Amino acid sequence: MPKNADEMLEAAASRPDELAAPGLSPRPRRKVAVLSCMDTRIDLFPMLGLERGDAHIIRNAGGLATDDALRSLSASQRLLGTEEVVVVMHEGCGLHGASEDDYRQMLAGDGILPTWRLGAFDDLEATLSHSLARLRAARELPHREHIRGFIFDPEDGSLREVEAPGA
Ligand SMILES: [Zn+2]
């Protein structure tokens, strides 16, 4: 019997004073949104020097610039005042080298034909560059001058920048 949800409620109930943010604005203080892979090893707040209230954090499998990531980034900029985007991908991603075809077949085996792709990729840098290019071309985002991409290596803790072609 899984009990994480119960333990989570207990954890929150044990420290409401720590969790409360009375008066803290929902508008990110540093006017930045971070799009990152959901990987368990990526701890964005210490990695990027962020505090609560500083940034929007959008996470998905891969840290890919999907339609839904774009929806969130658009809301972040147009409704909540962010002007910069940082995309974080990483070494050792579960989507790196995965098979789009095998995944589709797995779903098809359960009678499902999804409208979305898994997002499997073979080249980490090229995939990040492609995401940056998509965001830089997305007119949903009024602020596209400051869109940067980083790759984290969970093995050694390094974070490096990847530039989009022609940027
Ligand atoms: Zn990942």
Bound molecules: zinc ion
Share of β-strand residues: 15-25%
Radius of gyration: 18 Å
Please give the share of residues in helix: 25-40%
Mean pLDDT: 96
Task: State the end-to-end CA separation.
Answer: 51 Å
* Major β-sheet annotation: 5 strands, mixed
Shape: globular
Sequence stretches where pLDDT stays below 50 over 5 or more residues: none
The helix tally amounts to 6
Broad structural category = alpha/beta
Strand order of the largest sheet: 2-1-3-4-5
Order of helices and strands: HHEHEHEHHEE
Strand segment tally = 5
Question: How would you explain this protein's 3D organization?
Answer:
This protein starts with a helix and ends in a 5-residue tail after the last strand. 23% of the residues are buried. It has 167 residues and is of the alpha/beta class. The protein has helices spanning 4-13, 16-19, 44-48, 67-80, 100-109, 124-136, and strands spanning 32-37, 55-60, 84-90, 147-153, 158-162. Helix content is 34%, strand content 19%. Zinc ion binds next to loops.
